Amino acid sequence: MTVLRPAAHSLGGHGISAFPPEVLEQVRGRVRLLSGLLLLAFAFDLVVYAGNWLAILIGYPAPRGFLGTGAFQVVNVVAVAASAGLWWVAHSRRVSPTRLHTLGLIYEIIICFIIATITFWQYYVLNQMLPNLT
C-alpha cells in the first residue's frame, strides 16, 4: 500500500510531486517498458510494409489500398524514433524521475493521438468513409 504525502518533494528537486520517492523510482522502469513495447509495435508495422514491397517486387499483386499507405510509414518512423529516444532517456540517470514522468505523460498523449489519427486515416483511405465506431 502506498501512502501519498501531499507535500512530498521530488527526487530531482524540481517542484513538488504527490508521489513518494519509492514510487518515482519505479517510473524509470515503467517508461522504459512502455516506450520499448511501442517501439516494437511501430517497428513491426514497418517490417510488414517492407515485406509487402518485397512481395510486390517478386511478382505478387499489391494488397488493396497498399500503395496509398506510404505516408503512414513516415508517421511510423517518427513514432519509432520518439520511442527509441524516450527509451534511451529512461536509461539515463541524468534525467530526474519527476521530469521523466512528465516526458512519459507527454509521450503517451502524442502516441495516443498518432494511433487514433492513423486508425481514422487508414480506414478512410481504404473505404472512402470514416469508421462508424471510434
In brief:
This protein has about 130 residues and is mainly α. About 70% of the residues lie in helices and about 0% in strands. Mean pLDDT is about 85; it is low at about 10-15.
Written account of the structure:
α1 runs antiparallel to α2 (70-91), α1 packs parallel to α3 (97-127) and α2 packs antiparallel against α3 (97-127). This protein has one domain (26-127). It is built from three helices and no strands. Helix content is 68%, strand content 0%. By secondary structure, the protein is mainly α.
Structure keywords:
elongated, 3 helices, 134 residues, 0% strand, mainly alpha
Taking all Cα atoms into account, the compactness measure Rg is: 20 Å
Would you identify the regions where 5 or more consecutive residues have pLDDT less than 50?
Answer: 8-13
Percent range of helical residues? 55-70%
What is the average per-residue confidence, as pLDDT, rounded to a whole number?
86
How far the N terminus sits from the C terminus, by CA atoms, comes to: 36 Å
Order of helices and strands: HHH
Total strand segments: 0
Number of domains: 1
Outline the biggest β-sheet. Answer: none
Shape by Cα distribution:
elongated
Assembly state (oligomeric): single chain
Number of helices: 3
What structural class do the secondary elements suggest?
Answer: mainly alpha
Strand content: under 5%
